[in-house]
Design brief:
single chain, 0% strand
């Protein structure tokens, strides 16, 4: 990675998590209003962020293949539904490609957010933002649930891949009608073990108390001003 790329990645990782959450919310809304040029800009920016963090994402290729299947499914569903309702196939294809671009943007946005910020920092940022609205007690429980969800998703994908690989190697001739229930049972048992491990980790680190989520952020007004200007630019680019 070049010196400029390393510097940009360092600056991006150090941004206040509250600003990142706000940025993700605004950009997620802009994706559904953006034109083709806006989607191209968003995809280029988010793709560059993910590419810069590729070395810290050892299982990224497998997850991206899963994302590709998800995107293709919704694109095909949109195309077939438009054809069913009487649209011309050219218009249906264009609308399907637009859906593919927007869903891809949202997936890359979530990936970039989790790659540049730890689950603990995102939870603390969310707790700080929610505390004035929902109260202190409710805010930290929501933040804990949010952080656990972000931390648990890659573990879930890893466990599914491990079960799939084990069944494929140990039972190569097993039919799908026997393999699928077996894999589902093994995955559920593995997820139950992961849930227990995560519960122990939360209790051991003291994250099951409100005090653990009262983090003091050292962001400056310049950082927030830069975030607001960037958000305004993205919104204006999406609308016009």
């Amino acid at each position: 990675m070049s010196r400029w790329g390393a510097g940009f990645r360092s600056v991006l990782n150090g941004v206040d998590p509250r600003a990142k959450i706000l940025f993700a919310l605004v950009l997620g809304a802009c994706v559904w209003r953006a034109s083709w040029a806006g989607l191209a800009l968003y995809l280029a920016f988010l793709g560059a962020v993910v590419w810069m963090h590729r070395l810290h994402w050892p299982e990224g290729g497998r997850l991206l293949r899963t994302y590709a299947g998800f995107v293709c499914f919704w694109g095909m569903a949109k195309f077939l539904l438009d054809l069913f309702w009487g649209a011309a196939w050219e218009a249906a294809a264009i609308e399907a490609l637009l859906v593919v671009g927007r869903v891809s943007c949202l997936l890359l946005l979530g990936t970039a957010l989790t790659m540049t910020t730890s689950a603990r920092a995102l939870g603390a940022g969310l707790c700080s933002m929610l505390r004035p609205c929902v109260g202190r007690q409710r805010a930290w429980t929501l933040a804990l649930a949010f952080a656990l969800m972000i931390h648990f998703l890659p573990l879930t994908w890893r466990r599914i891949h491990e079960v799939r690989s084990a069944v494929k190697r140990r039972c190569p001739g097993l039919g799908w009608y026997v393999r699928m229930p077996l894999m589902a049972q093994a995955v559920l048992r593995g997820l139950a073990a992961l849930t227990w491990d995560q519960s122990l980790a939360v209790a051991a680190r003291g994250l099951d108390r409100a005090e653990a989520w009262q983090v003091r952020f050292d962001s400056s007004w310049r950082e927030w001003m830069a975030t607001m200007l960037l958000l305004a630019g993205l919104a204006a680019f999406a609308l016009f």
